[in-house]
Specification:
Layout lengths: L19 H31 L2 H11 L2 H28 L6 H28 L2
Helix pairs in contact: 1-2, 1-3, 3-4
Length: 129
């Protein structure tokens, strides 16, 4: 059997630029994993609440670490991003907005909405507004 050496090669990852909709799709999957991991943290907090005053104080000490605060805000962002992308999927399920320009516009709206909701939650939680 002869080997054809004139075949075109696939674009290399350094040459190929992933479209915004592809990045959004990958990020949606990643935030789903983050939400699942965040549930472990949520169960830890609930079990500390149910465990009494000592376990609650220990949990508060752990939750006041800057890294865990960052993880919690990442969890909040993942929640809002996943929510916004879910709304986008509902629009797709209705059979609307499959044009390339509309897909990119909705992707930007999704990013801005998830960041805005996260910042609003931060302000509301910090200032109690």
């Amino acid at each position: 059997m002869a080997i054809n050496t004139n075949r075109p090669t696939s674009p290399h990852l350094q040459v190929y630029r992933l479209p915004l909709t592809g990045i959004i799709s990958i990020t949606h999957r990643m935030t789903g994993v983050m939400l699942t991991a965040g549930l472990i943290l949520f169960v830890y907090v609930i079990s500390a609440l149910a465990g009494g005053a000592d376990s609650y104080a220990a949990m508060q000490e752990v939750m006041n670490l800057w890294l865990l605060k960052l993880v919690c805000w990442g969890f909040v962002y993942a929640l809002f991003f996943h929510l916004c992308h879910g709304v986008r999927h509902l629009i797709w399920d209705a059979g609307n907005s499959f044009e390339l320009e509309t897909l990119n516009r909705y992707a930007m709206i999704e990013l801005v909405a998830s960041l805005t909701l996260t910042l609003m939650t931060f302000v509301w939680g910090y200032y109690g507004l």
